[in-house]
Amino acid sequence: MSWDEYIRAKSVDEALDNLDRLHGAGRVLAGGTDLILQLQAGQKKAHCLLDVSSVSSLCGITHENGRISIGAATTHSQIGNSSLLFTNAPLLSEACSQIGSPQIRNIGTVGGNIVNAQPAADSVIGLLALDATCTIVSKDGVRNMPVSTLFSGPGISAVDSTQEILTEISFDAASSSAGSAFYRLSRRKAGSLPVLNCAVYLHYNNEENTITRLRIAMGPVAPTPIRLYETERVFTSDTFSMRLMKEALNKVFDEVNPRSSLRGGREYRNEMAKVLVKRAVLKALQIAGWKDSE
Questions:
Q1: Are 225 and 128 in contact (CB under 8 A)?
Q2: Which residue in 24, 255, 64, 52 sits closest to 160, CA to CA?
Q3: 136, 43: one domain
Q4: Residue 55: half-sphere exposure toward Cβ, Cα within 13 Å
């Protein structure tokens, strides 16, 4: 065994009390599909595991005042099967429904996926495109951080799971002018990590034929999940056309920088990044009401 003690917490306060008592020797567990393997391999250490997966306040999906909130212990299966999210955040439903195998999706949680901080995390790519905010609690209080600020390197998260608990993820529900899409490229359909993934969220003005708001998230094309800010600026700089699409895709090539050839060569992934962005933007535009006249 890689740990000596296991506690199934009944509340966030109980978990925080135990983290405080253990002085860094405890670690939050919420699914554990990655953490257990990391502990067994010696990549992470913990004297005690504090399981928060059954804390009721950390589970579930709600919609209030135009804002979607997801408890951090909500599983990928629950997100992928949620009719509320299928209507109001379909790209996140799609992203979570493609993670791993059914067994992994039934146990793995969205909060765990965020704290694990992998550049290829499907749910994180979706949440980046949704401009989500995370709520993090500790004995020192509560802080709210954009999901885009939580990562500083592969596997390095701003959430310290020996002292803090990620409790909730929230974002605006989709408006009537919005379109979104999620695409994933992998070597085989079942259980594989993505070679690339891409999520797009946009607003489209049909009368002026312009993309008025756009967020493009991609992984794993950098040490962390990233937004393609320069590409977004090109897409929103003029009326939409395939000429503008070509100009924007040149920016994609400039912004992505795959860090290894683990699941595909750098040149291949650079080219396929443009393909995924093009497909995702066109699909999102069509959902938002754009009709191709070129």
A1: yes
A2: 24
A3: no
A4: 29
CATH code at position 260: 3.30.390.50
Question: What Å distances lie between residue 285 and 274, 289, 292, CA to CA?
Answer: 16, 6, 10
Which domain does 207 fall in, by range? 182-288
Q: What is the mean pLDDT of residues 181-199?
A: 83
Q: CB-based burial of residue 83 (10 Å sphere; 0-12 exposed, 13-18 middle, 19+ buried)?
A: exposed
pTM for the model stands at 0.94
Decide the pairing of beta strands 48-51 and 5-8.
Answer: parallel
Q: Are 143 and 36 in contact (CB under 8 A)?
A: no
**Neighbour count for residue 223 (Cβ, 10 Å):** 16
Q: List all residues 6 or more positions away from 233 whose beta carbon is below 8 Å from its beta carbon.
A: none
Query: Domains in the chain: how many in total?
Result: 3
Amino acid 186: pLDDT: 82
Q: Which residue has the tokens 């794993």?
A: 220
Two structure tokens written together for 14: 């109980």
How far apart CA 96 and CA 81 sit, in angstroms, is: 9
| Tens-digit pLDDT profile for residues 137-180 | 999 999 999 999 999 999 999 999 999 999 999 999 998 889 99
